[in-house]
């Protein structure tokens, strides 16, 4: 991804870039700390926005491998940027499905799922097909289709809004609960078959 344009205006960053499949993106981010960091990167000579000066005084560009190495080092796990994109896509789709009403027909359920996938795809800047295949956990779709998403979602989100969330948004806590329920159900099913 090559940044075509980034403008820093106080604490707001305005990005305009071409992403995957040559899709144009325009994004505004308001974050004073990030704005200062990007401004310092802009002040470095060269064409790459995301770069740094190493201990030897050499400019080094930051690429996706650097980002993934950093994520692995701070988490102690084999996480990559794709894991974070999948998490955000899953939460966005789940939130959209929870906001929808329970479908009264299979055709209506398909429309609701398509709309939720579109919400996630728009957020991630992907096509709906790629988003559904790679960035939305299938357990969320399954829980919507069998109706279990609604009771779990609304109960967990309400509880999370009134208590400690360990740095997670209430919607993220609800997604964790749904995924945990699916995992436990699958394990029980596998034990019954064995």
Describe what is shown at a glance.
By secondary structure, this protein is an alpha+beta fold. The chain has helices at 32-43, 64-75, 81-99, 106-124, 128-134, 138-145, 148-161, 170-193, and strands spanning 2-9, 12-18, 24-30, 51-53, 59-61. A hairpin with a 5-residue loop joins strand 2 and strand 3 (24-30).
Number of strands: 5
Strand content: 5-15%
Per CATH, the class of the largest domain reads: Mainly Alpha
**Apparent shape:** elongated
Helix content: 55-70%
CATH fold annotation of the largest domain: Topoisomerase I, Chain A, domain 4
Number of helices: 8
- The overall pLDDT average reads 88
Stretches with pLDDT under 50, minimum 5 residues: none
The H-and-E topology, N to C, reads as EEEHEEHHHHHHH
Q: What's the architecture of the largest domain in CATH terms?
A: Orthogonal Bundle
The strand line-up of the biggest sheet is: 1-2-3
Largest sheet, in brief, is: 3 strands, antiparallel
Q: Give me the Rg, rounded.
A: 20 Å
The tally of domains stands at 2
Describe the structure.
The chain has helices at residues 32-43, 64-75, 81-99, 106-124, 128-134, 138-145, 148-161, 170-193; strands at residues 2-9, 12-18, 24-30, 51-53, 59-61. Helix 3 (81-99) crosses helix 4, helix 4 (106-124) crosses helix 5 (128-134) and helix 7 (148-161) packs across helix 8 (170-193). A hairpin with a 5-residue loop joins strand 4 (51-53) and strand 5 (59-61). Strands 1-2-3 form a 3-stranded antiparallel beta sheet, covered by helices on one side. A two-stranded antiparallel sheet has the order 4-5. The N and C termini lie far apart (48 Å). The protein has 2 domains: 2-50, Topoisomerase I, Chain A, domain 3; 81-193, Topoisomerase I, Chain A, domain 4. The protein has 194 residues and is α+β, with helices and mostly antiparallel strands. 59% of the residues lie in helices and 14% in strands. The mean pLDDT is 88.
